[in-house]
Amino acid sequence: MQLHPVVGYSWEGYVIEQICQLLPHRVNPYFYRTQDGSEMDLVLVKGDKPFACIEIKTTDAPSVSRGMRESMADLSCKHNFIITAGISKPFDLDKDLCVLGLKDFLNCHLPKLLK
Predict the structure, then answer these.
(1) What is the pTM of this model?
(2) Contact predicate 45/30, CB 8 Å
(3) Domain 7-113 architecture
(4) Per-domain boundaries in the chain
(5) What torsion do the CA atoms of 42, 58, 66, 13 make, to the nearest 10 degrees?
(6) Would you tell me how many other CB atoms lie within 10 Å of the CB of residue 21?
């Protein structure tokens, strides 16, 4: 099934809004992009230290792009996630990267990150 081209942007915006409304004042959300095009959809920062990188995808079988790997290396976050629209059970894509749905992120992972 082909999805409309704006579905990804709409999903990304929705996920970012859901996460940002739960963030305390001491945590700031940022979009990260380098001059060479490496990017991360959402980076959570306490003070001046990034602690979580979040990429947002609509696919059930996400892959890690070179740009995402470079962003994760640049930011050196301990917690890295891909939030997808259709994953029902979280799984680790790599030792430092978890793929999960929005509900699992909001209910299980975000509260632990904010402690």
Answers:
(1) 0.92
(2) yes
(3) 3-Layer(aba) Sandwich (3.40)
(4) 7-113
(5) -20
(6) 8
Sheet holding 49-57, edge to edge: 27-33, 39-46, 49-57, 79-84, 97-101, 91-94
Pairing of strands 97-101, 79-84: parallel
Q: Are 106 and 22 in contact (CB under 8 A)?
A: yes
Report how far Cα 1 is from the mean position of its chain's Cα atoms: 24
H helices present in 1-115, as ranges: 7-20, 66-75, 102-104, 110-113
Gap between the Cα atoms of 107 and 30, Å rounded: 21
pLDDT tens column, 19-56: 999 999 999 999 999 999 999 999 999 999 999 999 99
